Model the fold of this input.
Amino acid sequence: MNFTTKIPIQKYNHPITYDSKIMLLGSCFAESMGKKFDYFKFQNTTNPFGIIFNPVSLAKLIERSVQKEFYTEEDIFFHNDLWQCYEVHSELSHPDKELFLSNLNSIVELTHRHIGSLTHCIITLGTSWVYKNIETNEIVANCHKVPQKQFSKELLSPEIIAQSIESILFTISVVNPNCNFVFTVSPVRHLKDGFAENTLSKSHLIAALHKTITHHPSPISYFPSYEIMMDELRDYRFYAEDLLHPNQTAIDYIWIQFFENYISESEFGLMNEICEVQRALQHRPFNPNSESHQKFLADLKTKMTTLEKKLPFISFEN
Done:
């Protein structure tokens, strides 16, 4: 007897390995997946400009990075005792103007380099609802708590979203034609927009993605994280206390569906070894000076050294 609707997922034709160079971009769910890649010590970068929810802002940041269009004083403003930029997340805001600009442009430089060497770009789209700065008529990635009267709220059409997705694909492919793309829609519900409005928002993202995937000349993969949450995990016990975000159990479940289908089976053994080390590092002994614990530490050190020799880019120091 089945108690859930299983979402079918096809095996990915360009599986991720430990040699892969991965970038995850988009909503807060991209951060959740990025932490999983970090845990298993893959070569990945997650949201260098911070969490970005809408596809128009994502496309703008990718174009800026590829073109190396560095930020100037015209791109930033001072608000609530911090220098801010409408294109990036508020976690990057800073009280020092020159340092803020320097940090932003360092991220542009680093992202430019990362994009040039990527094997996989995983993009999580969060919402079709956007805020447009009335003065500049530009869509912002973050309002930075600027008074709402300075913005108009709009719903992106599937056509505009599709154009942004095509822009992302084209911009990256020009400098890195070998990059493989995986898109997904965030399972996080944006109920501040309204219940029906959230459904409408997600439907626009899904419609735009499937239109792009169907007509694009090169293969693009769609991973159904939103569908898994809505159908396989259709129960509030899989949500955090806010009843909007997937809880850790749901994130773990979705990650399992991802790695079983998108990561090469040849890497499962290494992943398991790394997981054993990570769990051991969380161990808290009753008696740190005991002979058994010292042997435990010596064995752990041997395992870490062996893995670091197999994968020279990893480190367990942190």
Q: What stands out?
A: The chain is about 45% helix and 15% strand. Residues 97-117 form the longest helix (21 residues).
